[in-house]
Design brief:
By secondary structure, the chain is mostly helical. The chain has one domain. The protein contains 15 helices and no strands. The model has no long low-confidence stretch (mean pLDDT 85).
Length: 359
């Protein structure tokens, strides 16, 4: 009996390994298809959609343990390379705009939540935390404190990220939005002798952020550490293209594996409402970027990515792919995440007083 149990355990373990390898294979196939279609961000978006659609159609795929953290680690280092003393000084001059963006996102999230409640798609806590364009894990954790439907909140954020990473990069690429802002792009050539120090410092940054319980530690911790080295003038190495692609694929796999066969059958009216609300939110951010661009003397595409309700890693990758202002995008999303995480509880109390939950 013990031997039979061990055999079953070993078989289950090998089955999981097979499902993980299959997920990587599907992701790479999706990325190659995205490249063949000449769509932007193939390693991230192509792999994400391939894995998600495969999972929804019942294919047993599993994300390797730590895949998202490893992908975020690579992307965080890559984004940190864009920062220098000159870039930081320019970002400080745009501080009022960046703060205004964050507060505007909070307002749009509240309006989106009111829309979900208007059509009786969710109660007040679920609608509010599902509509806030903050980090999925942070909003899900906060929603649990207010007795919201955590699974619906998480589903709403995954749906929004799926939409944004498709619509925004594709739209900007089709519009021919390319350029540079806030510093030169990837000024560091690949120099392997600098990698050991970069890896050590980045891991220290991650450990510090985890210790302080700062959200998105695997992105922001090593991003901050590498940025500090760059600002201090320490010699750094650029990120090899193949390593950046690996990081994007791992993020795509981890996001895609959040979908399952029953995803579209779970509260379809709610997911449809979230889709409409996300598109309206995206349209409002594009309109705001259009109005602010001439006043702030910043590029319209740069501001779209800075306003967009996507994740830090995804929008930063888009900026990098299109040669746009990565530091502005990173700073805008970091400040927005901090503002939403800090002010969301207080804002929800105000929101709950202003609206009446449907019965």
């Amino acid at each position: 009996m013990i031997k039979r149990f061990k055999d079953r355990l070993a078989a289950a373990g090998w089955a999981k390994v097979g499902a993980m390898l299959a997920a990587i294979g599907v992701a790479l196939a999706g990325a190659e298809l995205w490249k063949a279609l000449n769509f932007p961000l193939p390693w991230l978006v192509g792999s994400l959609y391939a894995v998600a659609l495969s999972r929804i159609n019942g294919l047993q795929l599993i994300s390797p343990p730590g895949a998202r953290q490893a992908g975020q680690w690579v992307i965080g280092i890559n984004m940190g390379l864009y920062f220098s003393a000159t870039v930081v000084a320019e970002l400080v001059s745009h501080a009022p705009l960046i703060l205004g963006m964050a507060l505007f996102s909070l307002l749009l999230g509240g309006l989106g939540a009111a829309l979900l409640m208007r059509f009786r798609l969710a109660d007040a806590p679920t609608a509010f935390f599902a509509a806030m364009p903050g980090g999925a894990s942070e909003m899900a954790n906060l929603s649990d404190m207010w007795n919201a439907s955590v699974d619906r909140v998480a589903a709403a954020h995954v749906t929004r990220v799926m939409l944004v990473v498709l619509v925004v990069p594709l739209g900007l690429a089709l519009a021919g939005s390319h350029g540079a802002a806030l510093g030169e792009l990837m000024p560091h050539p690949v120099a392997w002798q600098h990698f050991p120090a970069m890896i050590a410092v980045s891991l220290l940054g991650i450990a510090l952020f985890l210790k302080l319980r700062i959200p998105n530690a695997w992105v922001l911790g090593n991003l901050a550490a590498i940025a500090i080295l760059g600002i201090a003038g320490y010699p750094l190495s650029g990120m090899p293209g193949w390593l950046s692609a690996c990081g994007q694929v791992l993020i795509g796999v981890s996001l895609g594996c959040r979908f399952g066969p029953g995803f579209l059958r779970q509260a379809p009216a709610f997911l449809a409402g979230v889709t409409v609300q996300s598109m309206l939110l995206l349209a409002a951010t594009v309109a705001a970027a259009f109005l602010v661009s001439p006043l702030a003397h910043l590029g319209f595409p740069n501001l779209i990515l800075s306003f967009a309700p996507g994740g830090i890693a995804e929008m930063s990758l888009t900026a990098s792919h299109l040669n746009l202002g990565v530091p502005l995008v990173v700073a805008s999303h970091v400040v927005r995440l901090a503002i939403l995480t800090i002010l969301a509880p207080v804002s929800f109390r105000i929101f709950s007083r202003l609206v009446q939950s449907p019965t």
